[in-house]
Design goal:
Elements (H helix, E strand, L loop, with lengths): L3 E2 L1 E3 L13 H7 L22 H17 L9 H10 L12 E3 L4 H5 L2 H12 L5 E8 L3 E8 L2 E8 L26 H21 L7 E5 L2 E5 L2 E2 L2 E2 L11 H17 L3 E2 L8 E4 L2 E4 L6 E2 L5 H18 L6 H9 L7
Antiparallel strand pairs: 1-4, 2-3, 4-5, 5-6, 6-8, 7-8, 9-10, 11-14, 12-13
Helix pairs in contact: 1-2, 7-8, 7-9, 8-9
Length: about 325
C-alpha cells in the first residue's frame, strides 16, 4: 500500500483545494455491492427501548442516506440506528465534519460498510478507540485513519472489503503454513489478511525491527502505533531529501537482514513508499505481504525487496552493488566467540 496522504489539519499547506460535496450525492453515485445478512446480535445493547423523539431525530439524520441507496438502509433498523447514534459523534472526521481538510470526501462511502461500522463500534465499546479524526493515507488494500484512544493517538487501518482488491494477494497467503486450509471466500480472506499483518508486525517488532507496534484487530480493522505528530503523519522516504542516503541505506539493509535472519520473514513489498522517516529514523510499514522463509516465493520476494532498496540508493548517489547487498542479507550471522 503506497499510502497517498489525503488529509491534513485545517490551515496547513495544501496543493489542491477541493470543496466538500454532499455525502448523499456521493453515495448516490457509488455502485457498491450489498453485503450478505449477518448475525449482529453481539452488537445489540441491553436496552432496546427508544424514546420517540430520539428515534425521529435518528431517522431524520439518516433520511438522505436512505434515499441515496441501499448501502446504509440497514441503519434505519432500531438496533443499528441506536448503535450509529452512539458512535456518530466519534466519527466526525470520517464524516467530514472535524477540524481537518480532506483531499477526497468520498472516503466514508468507500470504507465504512456495515461490517466495518460494526467492528468500529465494538472496538469503541472496548475502549480501543475513542474517536476517528481524519484519514492519513489510502492504498489499494486499505485506508489508514488517525484516531484518539485513552492512551494517546493511534493509527486505524481499515482494509477494503471489495472483491477486486484482494484478487492478486493469494500468492502471499498460499504456501504460508501459518494460514493453511484457507478457503477462497472473500470475507474470510480479508480477515485473514488483517491477522497476517498483525502477526508479521509483532514478529518483526519482537526481533528489533523498527515497525509500528500492532495493538489489536477486529475483522477488517487493525489498530496500531501512530507514526507522526498532531499535524500529520511522518513523511515517506520518497517524499523527503535525505542528508546522508548512504547511512539510510545501511540502516535499511540491516533491517531487511534482521527481518530475514532473525524474524524469518521476507517483507515482500519493500519500497520507498513503505518507509516513513519518523523522528529522524527510517521505519518500515505495511507488513501484510510478508511471508515466512518456507514460503515458495520467499527468496524471490526477498531479492525484489533488496533490489528496490539498491535502486533507491543508486538513484540518490550511493554506489552499492546488488549482489553484495543480497549476500549480506542472506548469509548467516557468525555466532559471537
Amino acid at each position: 500500500m503506497r499510502g497517498d496522504i489525503i488529509a491534513r489539519r485545517k490551515g496547513a499547506k495544501r496543493r489542491n483545494k477541493r470543496d466538500w460535496t454532499n455525502l448523499a450525492d456521493e453515495q448516490a453515485k457509488a455502485n457498491l455491492e450489498s453485503f450478505p445478512d449477518q448475525d449482529w446480535s453481539e452488537y445489540e445493547t441491553e436496552d432496546e427501548m427508544f424514546d420517540g423523539n430520539h428515534q425521529k431525530s435518528i431517522d431524520k439524520r439518516l433520511e438522505k442516506l436512505d434515499e441515496a441507496g441501499s448501502k446504509f438502509h440497514w441503519m434505519k433498523e432500531k438496533r443499528y440506528a441506536r448503535m450509529f447514534s452512539e458512535i456518530e459523534h466519534k466519527l466526525t472526521g470520517a464524516l467530514g465534519k472535524g477540524e481537518y481538510d480532506w483531499v477526497d470526501r468520498r472516503v466514508f462511502d468507500q470504507v465504512f460498510d456495515q461490517s466495518t461500522l460494526m467492528a468500529i463500534y465494538k472496538l469503541m465499546q472496548q475502549d480501543h478507540i475513542d474517536t476517528i479524526e481524519w484519514p492519513i493515507a489510502r492504498g489499494k488494500e486499505a485506508h489508514v485513519f488517525h484516531a484518539k484512544s485513552q492512551s494517546g493517538p493511534v493509527a486505524v487501518k481499515i482494509f477494503h472489503t471489495s472483491n477486486a482488491v484482494f484478487k492478486g494477494l493469494m500468492q502471499y497467503i498460499e504456501g504460508d503454513p501459518r494460514f493453511g486450509g484457507l478457503r477462497r471466500r472473500h470475507r474470510e480472506l480479508v480477515n485473514v489478511w488483517v491477522q497476517k499483518e498483525h502477526r508479521n508486525l509483532m514478529r518483526m517488532k519482537k526481533h528489533g525491527v523498527r515497525v509500528p507496534e500492532s495493538l489489536v484487530t477486529r475483522k477488517n480493522v487493525l489498530i496500531m502505533e501512530y507514526l507522526g505528530d498532531e499535524n500529520g503523519p511522518s513523511p515517506r522516504l520518497r517524499d523527503v531529501d535525505i542528508e546522508n542516503p548512504k547511512e539510510a541505506f545501511e540502516i535499511l539493509l540491516e533491517q531487511l537482514r534482521i527481518i530475514w535472519q532473525d524474524a524469518g520473514l521476507a517483507h515482500g513489498d519493500f519500497s520507498e513508499y513503505n518507509v516513513l522517516i519518523h523522528k529522524g529514523e527510517p521505519w518500515i510499514i505495511d507488513a501484510g505481504q510478508a511471508v515466512v522463509q518456507h514460503h515458495p516465493k520467499a527468496k524471490e520476494f526477498l531479492v525484489r525487496d533488496i533490489t528496490r532498496l539498491v535502486q533507491w540508493a543508486n538513484k540518490n548517489g550511493v554506489d552499492v552493488d546488488l549482489a553484495e547487498s543480497t549476500l549480506y542479507v542472506i548469509e548467516e550471522k557468525e555466532s559471537p566467540k
